Amino acid sequence: MDPVAIDAPHVLVVTGMSGAGRSSAAKILEDLGYTVIDNLPPALLGLAVQAHDIPEDHKHLVVVIDSRGGLPISELEDAITALEQEGVVARIVFLDADDNVIVRRYEENRRPHPLGLDTISGSIAAERELLSGLREVTDVTVDTSNLNVHELRERLTTLFSEDETTRPMRVSIRSFGFKHGSPRDVDLLFDVRFLPNPHWEAELRDLRGTDEAVRDYVLAADGAKEFVDRVDDLLAFLIPRFQAEGKSYLSIGIGCTGGHHRSVAIAEELENRVSQHGVRAAVRHRDIER
């Protein structure tokens, strides 16, 4: 595949599980200046792009596609392939959440699930099966299980606020604690529990990886610098190759036990390294306040 031109027009196809925040994501992207079309059949994607004159004006378009029409995956793939042949870069953004979270949201809002099966759980299982093929070809997955609407806005703003023509790759680095569960929406995941835990140092226990004392402790540990150097080398190797294959977003997870110290310090250091390569990087600490 030829490298994607950084000045190519972009279309974001927003899809995913019902109850995972598609409508909220569409509103946020509209606030960011995108033109949003909701509930579009995949077969009409090309016509929608032509109607908005994107190739000439380089306007950005968001198309929300859900499972209400059965979501023929082959139709969507064919439509995206046709757009790319016309020089339009199409990216699929998949909104997901844990089943129990989706059930709770439906129960709180007292809304029927769009698939309308006998139970909400049954509808969720059927929809997840329906979307399984699409999730495999997604460019960006956003797990909203632990995100409120403000955190979702922050996440989407980080990914999509700037003009996509300014940078071909965006890297998101997220620290987390394994005891709170591994994130499902990362492309690369690294475990830094091999490093000494500042939790067992009385003077560091109540601090965080963003504090200088903890950062110095973590980075001075045996193997810490070599680990960061090796991951930095790996990213320097991978990022241009991801770009050449048309990937615009890369999500990296850095995990330790609780998500307070080691993963935070390492994530901050990696963000600095990635930024030095001229790639836009953003860091988020999922569990730092838990």
What does this protein look like?
This protein has 10 helices and 9 strands. By secondary structure, the protein is of the alpha/beta class. The chain has 2 domains: 10-160, P-loop containing nucleotide triphosphate hydrolases (Rossmann fold, 3-Layer(aba) Sandwich); 170-285, no CATH class. The strands form 2 sheets. The chain has a 5-stranded parallel β-sheet, with helices on both faces. It has a 4-stranded parallel β-sheet with strand order 7-8-6-9, covered by helices on one side. Helix 1 (22-31) packs across helix 7 (149-160). The longest helix is centred in the C-terminal third of the chain and has 21 residues, at 224-244. It starts with 9 loop residues before the first strand and ends in a 5-residue tail after the last strand.
Summary, kept brief:
With 290 residues, the protein is α/β, with parallel strands linked by helices. It has helices spanning 22-31, 45-51, 54-57, 73-85, 99-109, 120-136, 149-160, 212-220, 224-244, 262-276, and strands spanning 10-16, 35-37, 61-64, 89-96, 140-143, 170-177, 188-191, 249-256, 280-285. Helix 1 packs across helix 7, helix 5 (99-109) packs across helix 6 and helix 9 (224-244) packs across helix 10.
